[in-house]
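Convert to structure. Protein one:
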Amino acid sequence: MYLAALALVAVVLAWPVPRWLPAVHRLRKVPGSALLFWQAVSLAAVIAGLALAPLAILATVRRGHAVPSPADNLGMLALGLAISAVLAGRLLVQGHLIGTSLRRARREHRELVDLLARATPDRGTGGGGVVRVLAHPTPTAYCVPGASHRVVLSDSTIDALSADELRAVLAHEWAHLTLRHDLVLEFFTVLHTAVPGWVRSARGLVEVRLLIELLADRAAVRSVGQVPVARALVALAEGDHPDAALGYEGRTALIRLEILRDTGRHRALVLVAAIGSLVVLALPMVLGALVIFAG
């Protein structure tokens, strides 16, 4: 019974939940807590999936409630661990491939930016870095994460924005870099691509990207206020950025403007998301322990 419940948890967390959760728009009001819940769901699905094969082998070879000796069942034990190792290996391979691809793309784009852009100090946001300014007719802003990061603006962005709006944009980009949102997105991308295509939910990855942008918007609001951030969103609504970068996205501007108008603290929602994260993460571990010790 407990093994069937663990299998159900693995399937539900990997398949329907990532498709259903983006429809819970209320979570966007607490993007940090929402991302925590998303991470708990993803980790719980991985834990359940990795534990399933060894525990199924255990249930097959045991007689009664006693835990059988591993020495008496080496072949079956090796089979269960091998299945889990294949799943873990796929995650590790995808992590390596995606990480390598992103680092290469970011390195190449940094080299291009350094070649084409002019560097100017960022004196307005406390980011303490240098901003690269590209000649481009479309207002756009983004950052290239990594150990040698870059914040990039088009010259039309500088022309289109007031001083406060420009500070809002820069605060948004520095928040991405300081909080290492690229690592959060990379984590979800690895999990997304590691599962079979028929299981994947593109909506889930899109929602995670939106939550990351909302977190950066919150940081910008704390730095310069709500109005400059909203105006900057409108001004950069047609902007875009390279796939390996993070920054203002016009495709989500209307949603982000709607969230900006909500100034509530939503403590109850934060509490529910935190408790939900703990429960979801604990569930596969509790079920696994019950399979082992309760039979």
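Protein two, convert as well:
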Amino acid sequence: MGIYARDVEDARREYSLRRLAELTGRLEPLIGAVGDRPLCVYATGSYGRLEAGAASDIDLFFLCDAELDGAFPFTVFVRLAAAVVEATEQMDFPPFTGDGQYLEVHYVERMEEVLGSPADDSINAFTARMLLLLESRPVFAADVYDRLLQRVVSFYFRDFADHPDTFVPVFLTNDILRFWRTLTLNYEHKRLKLRRLEGDALRAKKADSALKNYKLKISRLLTCFSMVAVLTSRTAPVTEAAVLALCAQTPRERIRGLADRGREAGGLVHKLEEHYEAFLEAVQRPQPELLAEFEDPERRKAALDDAGEFGDRIYELIRVTAADDQRLRYLLI
């Protein structure tokens, strides 16, 4: 990646951190209302990845330690949620998805209980857990965030004591792969609405759907497979501390860490860096401009072909950096 691109990346990171710090400052007065209750708030999405632009929205999750007598007090949550909404409005963030319907408290104990069950996805614990691990930054009670993140990572190390010399996090890798496949299936489900449209409404919806597909196949893919790639490249044993260190990195930092795995890996990482930077420059433009571009069938096809090439390079990077064939096998069977 060139000097200019690195400067642009640094500027996005600094902008993201400055905005997150301002949001944290606006929420600090709520510490007294929360008291000693172990609750944190963390950001995901472009802010969690430290690559936000002026038009970026912010996705927030509330996570609480369930070692309490009963659930988090509803009135306290309402105060905190209202403060979050007010702070984000004052900072000119776009409105929350679904008018804030996802602003709810998740409980670590419950998150572990439902892991892998049908309830995992239905109560949104799956998304909250995966984004916590793959692309999150604390904005309220960072000390609680650190402790609860460590606790969530520990879910995947139940068997480490039985295999301290040979342990690899297959459980965690499988959960990330499940998340990726759930994202792709959710996208296909939403495309069903296209069948009921025609004319201008169909053209506009196709553009919106294609733009979501473009982002899914690049930024969401990188979020998931940057972690998968690094975990697959590590020789046993892979420790809890190693995974926590990866959680602290952005997806780009994780991928960049594979550049020293040989000349071919270094070349692929360089191409991925350039590809991703071009993607960010493309999508961090006004939404009407983007949608107008994706209404053009030829430009839409070119963008999705570009996304396909990005996926090909991620696959090649995993192939050339995998610790051994057995680790590659775990990604399929």
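The chain is about 65% helix and 5% strand. The first helix runs from residue 3 to 27.
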